[in-house]
Amino acid sequence: MTTADIQRVGETVEAVNGLTARWVEKAESGTVLSAAGVWPLLALLADGAAGPARAELTEAVGLPAERAAAAAREFLGALDGLRAVDAAVGLWTSRSLKVHKEWAAGLPPRSHGTLSGWPRSDRKTLDAWAAERTGGRIERMPVGLNRDTKFVLASALALETEWMRPFTAECARPRSGPWEDRQLAGLHRTTSLIDRVGVAETPAGQITNLRVVGNAGIDVHLVLGEEDMPAARVLKAGIGILAGRHDIVPAGRLPHGTAGPGLTVSRVRHFRPAPPTLHVRTVAFDILAKHDLLVHADTFGLRTASEASAGHFPGISDRPTVIRTAEQAASAAFTDKGFKAAVVTAMAGMESSAPRPETTYLTTEVDATFHRPFGFLAVHRPSGLVLAAGWVTDPDPYRESKEAW
User: Fold this and answer.
1) Class of CATH domain 164-284+368-400
2) Are 95 and 117 in contact (CB under 8 A)?
3) What is the pLDDT at residue 355?
4) pTM recorded for the entire structure
5) Selection from 339, 313, 309 nearest residue 32 by Cα
6) Nearest by Cα to 209 from 227, 177, 180, 234
């Protein structure tokens, strides 16, 4: 985003980060999520909603409903303008659902397709869109389809950044704790920029924040809380640090000794003059997650919108429609060279008079073997927009490179 873009969508950035903060309160185990992928869809739905559904969506969006669609379009355009980010929105409707031109005009150009009514054929179309928009990281549109599906509204977000200085890959073998005797894909880096790490006192407790600088204006913040601090509190506190609500004390001003979670400051003698040094050790990870947004319908303003008692979107179509499913599939990978994330969010609607089908959801089960998990926040540096957030509980195992042989 340019400076002008940031100023223009600054209010939207605050709204998206606010949704991120509310969503991470529900985080419990290893996961990755992106409110930046959900928010534009909620904004477009708010524009076409009426009654209680409109009020709930407006509260979730954080902007007046009459401004939401324009803000979503502007936000998506600003995202897609970033060198490190690709963003898109798609709408597919059945031939029997006539969409109001005024509402459809709020969508980006060439984003409206047609559902054939044949789930197998439509599945191929939607999956191909998801894969193309995320570079193959998300291969399947996270939505259930059947002959009653009247529309699918989806967004895709993909980002990639390379570290300004790469890490050195190594085998990490902790000496104690739950990682004891496990060989993990460790990452190590040494720098003289010691203030890239700091500690903040928050209502939840102490948080250590490490900023890993990437190119194209994308950074990843690693956040570590006190022992036994829940994921939700750590991530929410991390977002508060980014927003300036919690003061962070950089390493150069911290006392000697144990200065924060996972952070020690000490004096070391050298035989020649040497600059301050920061040694960073972390682990590589690759996380896949899927979220059923209706499990936390109140967070996303979808409680009334998903009730089949009546139609809630007269601004979208004269046919009474409701949200049947709302899901997100997300992935994030942190390596020695950089960070990648991909997100596809999809919401499917049906006519309110149709019976609501029973839907099964795939879930990701994570073996939470870590005593001290940590969070991560992928952030657009100039604007402060949180593009993706997550919680690491199962890092990659160490695999010896073939080149070593």
Assistant:
1) mainly beta
2) yes
3) 43
4) 0.86
5) 339
6) 234
